[in-house]
């Protein structure tokens, strides 16, 4: 049988893909790593199909490895009888907890088949929410910025896990970046915030990201504007 890693999208239930919805409706059990992903899944499957997995709130590597090994065992046992799914917000292959499960299954349960169902990632959802155009030829770097970190270098960056926006903003501004922030974008849980003021997202929240662009960056965009003489002769 197969373990499906299903991307749920950024958090709004109607942004799950058609394929993801079909998998959730056909598998025997759906495992969720957290409260938010579970709330999306409930829109598509009954509570009786949801499997419980325990993930401790700790950074202790030994405890985390033990938790993932136990989770892998539970999911593999479920897949021995029927197809099952493990769901995650965003896309399973982009900054996702699903990577931990897949590595655990590969190591301890190599006979289990794993298939990924892509989801709408914050990498793409942020562009719509913040009104940012990522034009053809753009170089874009993905970085983490937890606890006030402020990576620099690339002309454009998407920063995940911005948990101290004020400190991050001070450093990026000093390095010559214009920064915009988005919190809980396309999520049904919590308040969505889009702002250039870091104090509006000063309260720590794991689901905060930022778009940083070098100040005064030149753009060479294709355009549909034509001068009057060219229009008359067309």
From TrEMBL:
Classification via InterPro entries: 4pyrrol_Mease, 4pyrrol_Methylase_sf, 4pyrrole_Mease_sub1, CobI/CbiL, Uropor_MeTrfase_CS
Pfam families per the UniProt record, alphabetical: TP_methylase (PF00590)
GO MF term (any one): precorrin-2 C20-methyltransferase activity
Keyword Transferase (UniProt): yes
Domain Tetrapyrrole methylase: 2-163
Listed PROSITE patterns: SUMT_1
CDD domains noted in UniProt: Precorrin_2_C20_MT
Pathway: Cofactor biosynthesis; adenosylcobalamin biosynthesis
Keywords annotated in UniProt: Cobalamin biosynthesis, Methyltransferase, Transferase
GO terms for biological process, alphabetical: cobalamin biosynthetic process; methylation
Family to which this protein belongs: Belongs to the precorrin methyltransferase family.
NCBIfam families referenced in this protein's UniProt entry, alphabetically: PRK05576.1-6 (NF004063)
Protein name: Precorrin-2/cobalt-factor-2 C20-methyltransferase
